[in-house]
Design goal:
Largest sheet: 7 strands, mixed
Strand order of the largest sheet: 1-2-3-5-4-6-7
Number of strands: 9
Oligomer: single chain
Distance between the termini: 36 Å
Radius of gyration: 20 Å
Amino acid sequence: LQTALLWSGMAHSIDEALRLLLRMTDIRFFRKGWGTARELEQLWALRESVFLSPTRFLESLSNKCVIQSVNKTAEYSDHVVYEGHFKSPLADMVPGLLPPESETSWFQMLIPQPLQRSTRPPPMVIHLPGTGDHFFWRRRVTMARPLLKQYQIGSVILENPFYGKRKPKEQRGSRLLRLIDLFSMGAALAMECSVLLQWCESKGYDRLGITGISLGGHMASLAACMFPRPVALTPCLSAATASRVFTSGILADSVDWATLSDRLMEGRDAAKTLQGRGWIPHETYDGNDREAALILHKLLEASTNLSSFPRPACPEACIIVCATRDGYVELQDVQKLVKLWPGSEIRTLDAGHVSAFLFHKDKFQRAVADAFERLDQVLCPSSPAAAPRRSQG
C-alpha cells in the first residue's frame, strides 16, 4: 500500500513539476492574440456546411483526396517505410487560414513485409501527435514499431499542422501564435485523416484506425467523428472538450493571458461571431480580470466539445485510455466520452499525464490492438481469426 501511495504521489508530482517549468518559461500559447473575427466566421461557415454530417464532409473532399507523392525511404527485415505528402484540403477550402508552411501535409508509413503477414492486408492506424511531438520519430519509436512487432499493425504517422516541417517560422516550439490556429489545426487534421483513410481504402486496407495521445487523442476523436465508416478509435489521455485544459489545467500556465487581456476586443468580436451564429449564448462582458479566461473557455467549448459533433460510426470499436491523476485533463471530462459514445470502453491508469506517457505506452498499444479486434467483430462477426494477433516471436 505504501508503495502504491508513493507511486501515486510521484505520478501527480511529475505533472506539477512540469507546471513549475511552464511558469518559468517565457514561451506562451497565443502570444499574438485570438485571431480575427473574419477568420473565425470563415471557419464556422465551413463547419456548418460540412462538419455536421460525415457523409457531406467526405463528399466535400471528393476532388481533394490527391496524394501527390509516396516514396520508399527504408526497408527492414520486418517492415518497409514510405513517406509522402499532399496538399491539405483546408488550404483550398479556406485560403490563407493555414500559414504557407502548414499547407502541405507530410506523412510516414510503416507497413509489415509481405512475408510477415497473411494474404489479408494488415490493419492500419493513423497516429496523431500530442503537444510538442514534432516530426515522425517519437511516434515511430514509441508506438508504430511496437504495434508492428507485437501485433502486425501497420501505421501512418501524420505531421501536425504548425509542427515539424509544417511549423511557421515565427512560432516558437509548439506554442501556437493565435487561438484560431488551434481551431485551424483541428479542421485541417480531420480533413487530412479522411484523405489518408480513403487513400488506404483504395490500396486495399480494409481495417483502419486512428489514435493519439493528449492533444493527438482529441484530434483523433474529432477525425473519427467526421469519417462516415467504422474505424478503430483509441484516444489516450484526452477529454470530451479542451475548454478546461487551457483555462484550469496545467496548460493554463502556458497561456499568454496578458496578451489575450490586452486584445480583449478581438476576443469579444470572436465571441459575438459565435453568438450571432447561435453557438454560444449572448452575454455582456464587464471587463473584469477573468474576462479573457471566460471568453477563452466559451470559444473552446463551442469549438472542441465533441458533443456538438456526430458520433463515431462504430463507438463499439472505441477504447479510451485515461489517467486517474492527470494534471492536464480532468477525469470528469474524459468520462463524458463514454456517455457520448454508448458501447465504447474507458480504461484507467494509476498515473499522471506525463508518467502515463513515459511508463504506460504498452497499455496504449494494447488498447489499439483491442480496438481493432472489436472492429473486426463488427466488420466480420463470423471471422474471429481476422483480429490482430500478438506476435509469437
